[in-house]
Amino acid sequence: MRTLTEGQVEIGSVLPELSIDLTPTLIVSTALATMDFTPVHHDVEGARAQGSKDIFLNILTTMGLVERYVTDWIGPEAVIKRINVKLGVPAYAGDRLTFTGTVVECDEGEYTVEVRGKVSLGDHATAAVAFRLPSPADGTAAP
Amino acid sequence: MSGRDSGVHEELMELAAKQAALGEVRGAVAADPVNEPMIRHWLDAMGDTNPAYLANGVAPPAMAQVWTMPGLGPRQQTPVDEIMSALNAAGFTGVVATNCEHTYHRPLRVGERVTAATRFTELKGPKTTALGEGYFATWTVTWYAGDDPVAEMLFRVLKFRPKERKKPYPLKPAINQDTAFFWEGVKQGELRIQRCGDCGELRHPPGPLCPSCRSANRDHIVAAGLGTVYSFVVHHHPPVPGKKTPFVVAVVELQEGVRIVGNIVDCPVEDVGIGMELRVTYSSMDDELTLPLWAPREP
């Protein structure tokens, strides 16, 4: 895995689409990995009793997947500074989450990517992710 | 808002101010230090193959909150809890998160043990939303490694009073390819009449073929919604589910020249007569169904 350099990222750069099948296994394993034991993320009957149609992705996972989507593209040495997510419709088990993204801003070496995570019901997450690339001088990420 | 509700509003706002005045309240230190097994488990579940975290001994930034999650054990109280209880008690029992914003100051290193500190920032409302009337509650959490703030989160939820669903109306229209445009129109407050796409003849009820020229081409016009009673019956018995007897079923002759069947409302049944002037009115029968009904035209 290599990290993109400044010349390879510019305003308007488009991230490759990433689609993730939201299997019950993914919903449950991410809920547990994020230490979130709220029943709506692992108990189908519990979720239905609360008016949801199935178990759904928890917010900590949404944050993690948005982060992963951006770092999958820019590479391991970039540093994520901020992730702002506006939460939309639930991402239910059995659905598919598709991420798209575009670089929209560059301010003194800090890039902002706009990310959309769509499911069949609409936008699950609309996010702005800020990151820095490793500085070319020393090969480490700028502070 | 009623007087009682405005009292509730004052109380909620007072409590919000009190909780905000508490400032940042620190919780207990995380049960486990930042550690490789939890990082590996997290990366695995997320499908995140970034090798840098484990190679460099740092946690993925988005994991910040994970270290202080309560797990299955009892949850620690924060300044937010009292606000949530008060909103629940006031009937704002629904909850949906609307914003989650993370800021990362530096990566968390394996071996560090974090503490979460919560600050209640704002209660805004009441606001009318698609889910129902509600309040937006916002708080921030800062994660510290020792005294060093490493990450922050702004979290906002909407606490709403779930909309009461109307009892489903027991009589449902048959909606199919021929009639869907009509019911779509009713939802938008339009009385649509099918028109032959070739000879232009208007027809109701809608169907697949023009009775005059046999054309299958069709579109529709929007009727003015004015008509007169062509004929009618007053139904007294037997009882009909969803309807109070007696009620009037009329054949209404529209200005446009076609006839349509409907109930006459907002008028004593004995006042209905042939030739009576009517206008259409739309009545929401339950959360899905709207029906066109007929009322006496204003003089």
Automatic annotation (TrEMBL), chain A:
InterPro entries: HotDog_dom_sf (IPR029069), MaoC-like_dom (IPR002539)
UniProt signal peptide: none
Boundaries of every MaoC-like domain copy: 14-119
Alphabetized Pfam families for the sequence: MaoC_dehydratas
Source species, domain of life: Bacteria
Family note: Belongs to the enoyl-CoA hydratase/isomerase family.
Protein name: Acyl dehydratase
Taxonomic source organism: Nonomuraea africana
TrEMBL record, chain B:
Superkingdom of the source species: Bacteria
Residue ranges annotated for the ChsH2 rubredoxin-like zinc ribbon domain, each copy included: 183-216
One Pfam family hit: OB_ChsH2_C
Domain ChsH2 C-terminal OB-fold stretches: 223-281
Residue ranges constituting the FAS1-like dehydratase domain according to the UniProt record: 30-152
Protein name per its UniProtKB record: OB-fold protein
